[in-house]
Amino acid sequence: MDRNAFLKRSALSAAALASLPSFAHFSSPSEKGGNPLTPKIVRKGEGKKVNVIGDQQTFKLTGEDTNGMFTLIEEVNPPGTMIPPHVHTKEDEIFKVLEGELEVTVGSETTVLKAGDLAFAPKNVPHTWKVVGDQDCRTILSVFPAGLEHMFEELGNLPPGPPDFAKVSEICGRYGISFIA
């Protein structure tokens, strides 16, 4: 990396880090009458595991941990795993790939994310994803605000086998999510 690129990246990183404490301070419900947040350490392999119609998820942080601010989920899925196009009306999502490759479409843009890449899917914007390549994909899904983990739990409690799409749509609809034909 050349010196100018290094300095530019360093300045941008410093600016981003400097903004985090003030962002956290102003957005914490614990200072607006909510419960105080409790620190939590989550080790590799820990968390609640849920199979959401083939999407293997591990809940790392839930709304219970964050006073409803966000949910953090680790997903580890083999090639071919996908979620059909859909729209959220209540939350934004961020997908950050740690290993493997994830093809995502957000709005009208489709791309393949590799380790270190991320995609932001704001509410009311259609999006979908599919694991591509020849290895499992490990992704961190951040959901703002929290609550979607409850829908994922409901979907994970459906009987094994091919999903009943009418039932899946009904559950998702109660959480403000609709599928796009």
From TrEMBL:
UniProtKB keywords: Signal
PANTHER family, sorted: PUTATIVE (AFU_ORTHOLOGUE AFUA_8G07350)-RELATED (PTHR36440:SF1)
Signal peptide: 1-24
Protein's recorded name: Cupin
Pfam family, one: Cupin_2
Coiled coil: none
Cupin type-1 domain segment(s): 50-153
